[in-house]
Structures are given as structure tokens and as C-alpha cells.
Prior knowledge:
Elements: H1 9-24, E1 28-39, E2 42-44, H2 48-59, H3 61-72, E3 79-88, E4 91-99, H4 106-123, E5 128-131, H5 144-149, E6 152-162, H6 163-168, H7 174-192, E7 197-198, H8 202-213, H9 220-223, E8 226-233, E9 238-248, H10 260-269, H11 281-306, H12 310-317, H13 324-330
Parallel strand pairs: 7-8
Antiparallel strand pairs: 1-4, 1-6, 2-4, 2-5, 3-4, 6-9, 8-9
Helix pairs in contact: 1-11, 3-4, 8-11
Amino acid sequence: MVPLATTEGTLVASINRGLKAIYASGGAISVLHKDAMTRAPIVRFGSAVRATQLMLFVEDPLNFDTLAAVFNRSSRFAKLQKIQCQIAGRNLYIRFACSTGDAMGMNMISKGVQYVLEYLQNDFPDMEVIGISGNFCSDKKAAAVNWIQGRGKSVVCEAIIKEEVVRKVLKTNMDSLAGLNVNKNLIGSAMAGTVGGFNAHASNIVSALFIATGQDPAQNVESSHCITQIESAQNGKAIYIAVSMPCIEVGTIGGGTQLASQSACLNLLGVKGANRESPGANARQLARIVAGAVLAGEVSLLAAIDTDQLMTSHMKYNRSSRDVIQLASTE
């Protein structure tokens, strides 16, 4: 079961059909290959020379263990993984990446960054901190740095769907479905100049799941970065479908996860709260669930478009003959 908070009835029906197709073909497999929240403060010096000196110091592998020790003192769960810099004139943007346990981790990483900045000012007293976030993070914005390097959880979810299932459940054929994916999700998105938008409607599913499970809805922007692939498989007897999502930003503790309804949805999924035996495991599992739901939504919507059922489905499931306002006023 996948909890969704949405006013779009067709979305629920579509994901249900996609899940049915995947289940009937043996299920899906997901892999989480990166787990690191990021924060990038902006600091300024009197000259580009001094900014470069700090950049070289921060990125020197010989200094990483010292900086990591300072950063990691800020939390039991915060573990610094990487520091990357970009310079613009006398401004330096320092992108910190760290694991954050089962929390989404924005507050956690910001605290660790503050510790490091205070430490660096001992050796660089002329460093001026302009802001704890310099938009090189990049939070709640479509950004190439997130699309390429990832932010939060990076997940790939894949499935093999049999030809019979494509025909009977999705009501289309494999060649047509794969062709539509190329022409719409890949070429069409390239024509639009998208960043991370090589998909049919990943944000639909991400938003509905985020609201249902108490995530930050605004982080749907980068969490919906996704590329959908559909290819022939098993000598033409099935299709291979995959979604690659490098920026799923989720947590199972803190924030909206503590609300009653959202907490119940997390409990339904078996990922409520912190995993005490394996810190971070619950949040990672939630990210995999998000990717799996997106996989189902992608294959179903593409099938609906391919068979010209998109409009009729919306008319059927998104319209009601009942006057909800009038019903509410009479109860």
C-alpha cells in the first residue's frame, strides 16, 4: 500500500494500475547508491586570492579528517562525507555533504556547517560569512548540481514487465510505449531545456507521497528530478523500465512526520520514526518506496497517453456529479 494525499482521483487509479502491472510481472528492484544531504554557505574575502587560499585548504585531503571531526561533533548522526567548493570573484561557495540518519537533515547539516565555519575563522579571521545557505546546496530549486551530483537519497528503481501484462493491463504494446518514452520524456524534455525533468509526471507522485508522509512539500522541486527509461528486454518478450532519481529528500523523524495522519502513514509503510538498530534505514526505505511509486505512475501514464486514454480517464475519475459543498452543509 502506498499512501497518497491528492485531490486528483485519476492519479490514484493510475498508480494502482502501474503497481498491478509491475506486481504481475514479478515486482521491482530498487537500489540506493548515495545518501547525503547538502548545505553550501557563502563566504567572502577581500580578494579572490584569499578566497582561493581557503578553497585549497578546505579541499586538501590532508585537512578533511580534521574538518570532519569538527563537523561530526554537532550531532550523533551527522557524518561529513565530502566538501566541494566553487569560487566566483572573492566569493567562495562551500558545499558540504553528510549523512543524517533517519532525519531529512537540513537543520542537522546546518548546525555542522556552523561548527566548521567557526573553526575556519581561527585560521581565516578575514573570512566574512555572508549566509549559511548560498544556493549552491541547492534547496527547493531545480539545479544542475543536484541533478548531476545528487542531494538526499539517490535511487534507481527498475522492473521487467512482460508483453502479456503490457497488452492486458496497460492496454498498449511494447514498441509503441518505448517509442513514446523516447519522443516525450527524452527528446521532448531536451527540447524544453529541462533540468532533471526527463519523465512524464514524477512530481505528481512525489508531491502526493510527501504530503501523506509529512515531508517538506517544497522539496518536491528537486526530489522530482527523474529520468525514465523504457527498453526492449528478454529478446522482445518484455520491456525494461527504470526511473533514476538522484535527489529524493525524505526523513522519518522530525517536522511533519510527527503529525497524527502523517505518522500513521509512515507506520503503515513500516518506516515510522528512527531505526535504532540501523540509523538511516527507515529514511532510505522511504526513498525506495517513493521511487517505486514513481515507477508505477510513469508506466501507467505513458500507457494512457499512448492509447489516447488520458482525457477520458480524467473525465471519469476527476469529475463528480455530487455537490460536495451542498452535502457538507446538510450534514
